[in-house]
Amino acid sequence: MDVRFYATLRDLTGVRRVEFGLPPGATVRELLGAAIARYPALGPLAWTPAGELSDFIKVFVDGREIRYLQGLDTAIPEGVTVDIFPPTAGG
Fold first, then answer.
1. Burial of 63 (C-beta count, 10 Å sphere; 0-12/13-18/19+)
2. Which of 7, 23, 32, 71 is most buried, taking the most CB atoms under 10 A from its CB?
């Protein structure tokens, strides 16, 4: 599973792109768990105290934001890229 980190998350993890050996169909929740296990500094940014995905982390599966899919339960098909980045603002 190909995962790309952006902006401050890239700085935090020290990588731009990384492979996770999760099986096809693993969920975004499982992927985030694996990412936090590998890069513990992501944990406080990813989860709210209630255990929900924080607003600081945006996750896209094959170019689509998970909030428009099945959220953390979105299955990740084989061969797609997952993009994880902080929200951006501009004017």
1. exposed
2. 32
d(CA 20, CA 15): 13
Angstrom distance (rounded) from CA 76 to CA 29: 10
| Angstrom distances, CA of residue 22 to CA of 1, 17, 35, 82, 85 | 7, 15, 11, 12, 20
At 63 the pLDDT is 95
Sorted by where each starts, the structural domains of the chain and their CATH numbers stand as 2-85 (3.10.20.30)
Q: What CA–CA distances, in Å, run from 81 to 60, 64, 74, 76?
A: 8, 10, 13, 9
Q: Tens digit of pLDDT for each residue in 1-36?
A: 899 999 999 999 999 999 999 998 999 999 999 999
Contact present, 87 and 55 (Cβ < 8 Å): yes
